[in-house]
Amino acid sequence: MATTGQSVPQGHAAIPPQNDDPRTDAATRRRRASPWRILKPVQGQIRFAMAISAGSALFGLAVMVLLMGVVQRLLEAPDQVPWPWFAGVALCTVGAYVARLGAFNQAHYAAFRLERILREGLAGRLARVSLGYVETQGAGALAKVIHDDVKALHVFVADSTPLYARAYVTPVVTLVLLVALDLRLALVALAVLALGYGILTRAQRRRRDMVRAYNAAREKVSAAVVEYVQAMPVVRNFDSGKMSFGRYQAALDGYLAVMLDWYRAAGFPARFSWLVLSPMPTLTLVLGAGLWLTALGDLAPARWLGVLLLCTGMAESMMPMMMLRHMIEKVALSVARIEEVMAAPELDAGQGGAPAADPAAPALSFEGVTFSYGPDLAPALHEISFEVARGSVTALVGPSGAGKTTVARLIPRFWDVDAGRIALGGTDIRAMSTDALLQQVAFVFQESFLFADTIAANIRIGRPGASEAEVIAAARAAQAHGFIEALPQGYDTPVGERGVFLSGGQRQRIAIARALLQNRPILVLDEATAFADPENEAELIAALSALMRGRTVIMVAHRLATIRDADQILVFDRGRIAERGRHAELVAQGGLYARLWNNYETAQNWSLGGARSPAAVPNEEVA
Amino acid sequence: MQTLAKEPRADRPARRGATSFATTFRQLAESVGPEDAPGLRRTLAGLIAAAALQGFGLAAIAPLFTAAAVGEIRRALLWFAAMAALMAAASALRWWAQGFDFDGRMVRATWRLRGRLGAKLREIPLEQLQDKRAGELNAMVLGNVDENLLYALTVLNLVFTAIVTPLCAALGIVLFDWRLGLLLLLIFPAIVPLYRWRRPALGRGKRILGAAHQEASADVLEYTQGLAILRAAGRAGEKAERLSQTFRKLEAIQVFGHRKGAKPNIIVASVVELGLVAVLGVGVWLVVQGELHPAALGAVFVIVVRLSEPLSTFILYTAMLEVMEAALERIGALLAIRPLSQRAPEVMPRTHDIRFDDVSFSYAQAEVPTIRAFSAVLPERSLTALVGPSGCGKTTLTRLLLRHFDPQQGAVTIGGVDLRQIPAERLNSLVSVVFQDVYLFNDTVEANIRMGRPEATEAEVRAAAQAAQCLGFIERLPQGWQTPLGEIGGRLSGGERQRISIARALLKDAPIVVLDEPTAALDTESELAVQRALDALVARKTVIVIAHRLSTIVGADQILVIEDGALAQAGRHEALLAAGGRYARMWAAQGAVKHWTVAR
Q1: Tens digits of residue pLDDT in A49-86
Q2: Where do the record's region annotations for Disordered lie (chain A) (predicted)?
Q3: B305 falls within a domain
Q4: Which residue, A168, A173, B115, B480, is most buried by CB atoms nearer than 10 A?
Q5: Which domain holds residue B223?
Q6: Does the pTM exceed 0.80?
Q7: Cβ–Cβ of B217/A147 closer than 8 Å?
Q8: Which of residues 325-364 of B touch A (CB under 8 A)?
Q9: How far is CA B353 from CA A2, A476, B26, in A?
Q10: ipTM score of the complex?
Q11: A223 contacts in chain B (CB < 8 Å)
């Protein structure tokens, strides 16, 4: 027996769609994304699935008509089995569910294929956009787009598309059949449907505002919970219980108010239309009307039966649409985010190779570089000009936010400059191909990143062709050989996801070994020692010394003591170079650098509670 | 909704659907609380009764239609009246029962439950709280309460309609024609064993798919995080190729899992649908035998078509039910966590010297103890520094003092009183902590400082801010003291944030101060100001400081050198240097670093 439709579980009419994603719906506001557009790569298969699904719906309706035929035959000749009709019923039943499952399967395979295609496309895109884009978006957020947002499409692509076909085909064909069977009863069924939908529309009237209020309230609760939970040690130590719990409670109250408001506004119509659109009222009214017409002798039992079999199909196949609408709104957010990443501008890579060997040109030069992070933001760098001689060490110092790190990140083209140019050996970096640029420069960042692979493989990323001896030599120079050898599997030890099995200093030394193996003439260090634990610091510093030997170095530094002997110190202040020179000169000048140096020295000599009078302590010294 | 249905927790063991029902109800009743549990019970009874009435109402179609077809209009009218009455009663009952949702009682119940869960979070041992990631808890408290309780009645209503209604309709048909009724009774329950047969496979498939997704997700994150390195190494394309392989593998697993599920789907559908066709076939045979009126058979068609619809989605509903059960279980588990026990009698210490007495402690999942037979005395108003390699147990010692957990052996005392005898609120009032990671709340600057002591006067708040070197930058903020930190928190430097947290501790003025590496990861300029703020904070207090940079603690009254959770050395800086042990080696290593420059 074919069913009239495999509906999605019908949700609560009064409850808005949930948007669990704390990321705002800014993406949708920017561009109303249609989920249908994203189906393009698998369009053919989806259309096929929808066609089969429509076929299944038609089979289902055919079963109803044939059942009516069976009864009609039996009424005419009660002693004869109406074989053709009955066989038709069996056949169409099988046809309906086979087609239904077939459509379901096709849509799923298409969905799986689409997921892969989109993920590959996104990953490929990220390999070509500017690293600045990756950094501003955040690696985690981009990973979420590639994995979670693409996954979120599944419900729409795999489950909804066949239902869509059914939701359009069934009501139309049903109505035609009903009218053909008996116009009066068809009108009764239609009237109930119209009444239900009329009320439902009223329930949906303020929907958009409601959804917005709902999502905002939810987000507030979510933020309050995160704050409350993350800060629990602080909450317990400082907050006697009122403040943070109060904010959590206030967020809950806000949410409750929105929900109650929702029920007040939409509760009755939603509840009422739900009742009207359920099969029972239609069935009862068609039975009553049919009984009346039968009493008048104006209705054949078989036709009445046909109407009874078909009349609930319209509402039933359309109800999932209400659910689908919620679903599609939710999916649209994911689609918008996917499309946004796909539309991220690619870095126009130059075609040029390595810079021409111009021995006169400086290794690196900034020429009147101005740069800002966004069109409406104040420039982060104003007309910065400096040159770095081959084999020299240049230190970038200054208060936080002065532009040091921006300078370091413009060299590998995380972003492109707004004005001026950056040249390597006299060649504009924008004229070089990405590969050529990167073959000139090695980077060691504040936080070193390791891949979930073996230690050897992580070092070898620097130069895939390197021999084992070269890898070991690099590790030795980076002061990493000792601890690597001590590991159970030595160089073949897996470092765990993002290097979790190693300490910060150990990870950093592996990153330095990687850079050593790369053996590139220019080295950019961005606070390479910032997060090292003190026990490892000595080794880390020895590793850095090995790395810097014989290279042109540009380093961002906070510990001013380490750069006392730098060839050139550039002191940044609010996006400009305020002072430049060597340590001794700058200290003598008595300007910004002198002040920074003075602060630094004072901080270095501070000892906690220096002004206190010592207390007597009874603990015995332990051996 | 459907996402939920498709992804119940993969980690849940398969359970018998029948036995879990009572459990689910009990948990649901617990979740809505004693205020609404009776109402909920009545509501569920109402929904079941409505489903039953609907079933009997449907069964009434058979005699009604038969009577009409043979021209017995009067009898048909009677049946119609009965049927309409049953349907109306079913609708009215359901309308009434759904009032639990629509009158906002359910929303209020979840609101209350969340309040309860929030209050619970404040008293469960922090060790257990910090085991779980904040996100998971967030999902638990927020997401689950919502999706599980707000949808509970909707889902249960659907399940009742899928089970109770067909059952009652079949029973009704038994009264009308026992042979057809019995056949229907055989077909409808057949879905239950079919469902049980499918369920372990569904769970298995979901687990495999879940694992594949997890792997892909980790690979994607590694790719995006490592993109800078990969690009710098010129190997982004290659890694992208590897990522592609992961995606292809995921697709293969998805397709494989779906194929495996497709065959049983066909079998289940065949059994149910062909079974119903067979019942109709028997009906036709009965008609031909002259034992059943054709019109009666037609009416049975109508009823069966009506019933097969909810049946075909039955499995989907049970999956949703399963998600709900899992969430209720987690809520119940959270509510069942006991707070750390309070020993009688309650005592409030009068002095504030701290003593660790032969303390040993291991974390719940750890194989080796983190703290081993640790004893130390910290006299009132002394400054004690804890030093040692990372992971040696320094932070665990301070957490023991804050009673984030209790030691398995030994005791920690303040003023001679075991921490377990001090009420939690009072203990918190005795100790201030300045953490390395500063947490500022989404409130104004003033509120963030004032939370240290809500009843403080404006002058006191100001004085604390001044002593913590905050006054200057606070007054430069756009709205001064009233600037909300939620919007601006990111724009404050690490040092400024740290100084606000110190002002908070200053205002609280607790006799004991714990400093957990408060100057790590600050830039030089901030460091200077933070140092001044700290000097103000530690005056006249019993202080414990964890320090990496040894030069900052040379003035400590005692330095405790900790190695592998045990006390290795103790004494003043000079004495320890003279002793020439572990501390002296650490000091020498840090001295060398201090003099390193970039010169070659």
Answers
A1: 999 999 999 999 999 999 999 999 999 988 889 999 99
A2: 1-32
A3: no
A4: A173
A5: 191-291
A6: no
A7: yes
A8: none
A9: 80, 49, 49
A10: 0.80
A11: 442
